[in-house]
Amino acid sequence: MEPIAETGTPPRPRRNSAGLRRDLELLEVLGSLESESAGGLGVVRVAELAGRDKGVVSRTLATLAEAGLVSRDPVTQNYQLGYQLYALAARTLESRLVRAAAPYLRRVVTATHETTNLCVLRGGNVLTLATETSEYAYRGVGWEGVSTAAWHTSSGRVLISDWAEDELRGWYEVHGRDTAVTSRFAPVVADIGGVASTPPAQGVSRVTDFESLKREILRIRTKGYATVDEEFEKGVVGVSAPVFDFRRSIVAAINVSAPKPRLGGHLDEAGALAARVAAELSVQLGADPAKR
């Protein structure tokens, strides 16, 4: 009996898929611990680690540099992962953060009955990515898409609370005098007396210089959350807790804000709650709960 002929044919590989895999291998090499600790790698070392021809690697890296996926130091001539790659990663992470955080934000609103926000650091300032609003008739309007000065807010102070002192000092030299609302446009906010103000009228801040900022950062590290009492906006208090990723780096903050008469006497309770929920979200994002 003759063998039955196969009616189908194996799928042909996608055009340039092998080339794409080789490009990704080079990006993985530049993302290695060796590259990170050395401040980048030269063409020869990249070729050695990838097991590829030096000339081919050189041309490929030049092409990737044109696209912004890698960058080359003009002094050392070493290659590093580029700004465009980080920008794509940041957008992907933020999208995942919003999706993952939604049920956790709702849990905080259910427990506190107050407006809860998911905030990230962008361009040195705080950006609100998502908001779950309070159930009360009086509440702050949505701040989604609006950026604020990090040192003015509990969320901003949390977002920079894992930085080394030299990083913190460098950031403060640039952003330490930023106005409270750094966006060109901000929502109109009704103060506790019902009077509209844009930007919100501020109270007295605990952070007035770099030394007081360091003290505030130490307080956050000790307690696990930050509090503000009418610092960003008169009549309004708030708490924030850090969200970590798989590297145990702070990537976001869960923030609760409310009128002082409702939440002012329960800031530490709310802060502890936000910290617990943020820790659970961190585990979902890959953080090891055993590490501190």
Report what the structure shows.
With 292 residues, the protein is an alpha+beta fold. Helices cover 42% and strands 17% of the residues. The chain contains ten helices and ten strands. It has a six-stranded antiparallel β-sheet with strand order 5-4-3-10-9-8. Strand 9 and strand 10 form a beta hairpin. Helix 1 packs across helix 3 and helix 3 packs across helix 4. The chain is elongated. The N terminus is likely disordered.
Helix and strand layout, with pairings?
Blueprint: H1 17-30, H2 33-38, H3 43-50, H4 54-66, E1 70-72, E2 79-81, H5 83-112, E3 115-122, E4 125-132, E5 147-148, H6 154-159, H7 165-175, E6 189-190, E7 196-197, H8 210-223, E8 226-229, E9 236-244, E10 250-259, H9 260-263, H10 267-284
Antiparallel strand pairs: 1-2, 3-4, 3-10, 4-5, 6-7, 8-9, 9-10
Helix pairs in contact: 1-3, 3-4, 5-10
Classify the helix fraction into a percent range.
40-55%
What is the CA-atom radius of gyration, in angstroms? Answer: 24 Å
With strands numbered from the N-terminus, the spatial order across the biggest sheet is 5-4-3-10-9-8
Strand content: 15-25%
Helices and strands: which structural class?
Answer: alpha+beta
Number of helices: 10
Output mean pLDDT.
82
Largest sheet: 6 strands, antiparallel
Q: What separation lies between the terminal Cα atoms? A: 70 Å
Shape: elongated
- How many DSSP E strands? 10
Poorly predicted tracts of residues: 1-8, 183-199
Order of helices and strands: HHHHEEHEEEHHEEHEEEHH
